[in-house]
Amino acid sequence: MLLDADRSVIHMLNVLLVVGAVFCALRAIQAKRLLAAAVWLAAVSALIAIVLYQMGAHEVAVVELSVGAGLVTVLFVFAIGVTGEEVMDARTIVPLEVVGREVIPAVAEF
Question: Which of 33, 37, 71, 82 has the fewest CB atoms within 10 Å, measured from its CB?
């Protein structure tokens, strides 16, 4: 049986993993190079797989890690290698006002 202190540590770890996944996702969006964006997306998938594993969805976590972080990343890198990589401009897709008004409160409710 878990003690309250153990539950709070697990909860804090899950929050840190989700914050890390959001950070990696934002870095993937802001990345100027496609290869860097693919690596950031692989990190998002790996962190989400850890969260899923801790929630008890072991099979789903294994599939997410192998397909999301493994296969999709390999396909992205292969596609970037075949088509070539162009540096993208740093324009943001989502305005910062929308992020502050919509995304941050939604994450805070989690």
Answer: 82
Tell me the C-alpha distance between 52 and 64, whole Å.
9
Residue identified by tokens 């959001």 is 22
25-74 residue pLDDT tens: 999 998 888 899 999 999 999 999 999 999 899 999 999 999 988 899 99
Instruction: Give the separation between CA 40 and CA 63, rounded to whole angstroms.
Output: 18
Residue 93 has pLDDT above 60, yes or no: yes
- Which structural domain range is residue 77 located in? 4-109
Provide DSSP, 26-64: HHHHH-SSHHHHHHHHHHHHHHHHHHHHHTT-HHHHHHI
Which tokens belong to 93?
């897709």
Polymer length in residues for the chain? 110
Decide if 13 contacts 63 (C-beta within 8 A).
no
Q: Look up residue 87 and give its DSSP letter.
A: P
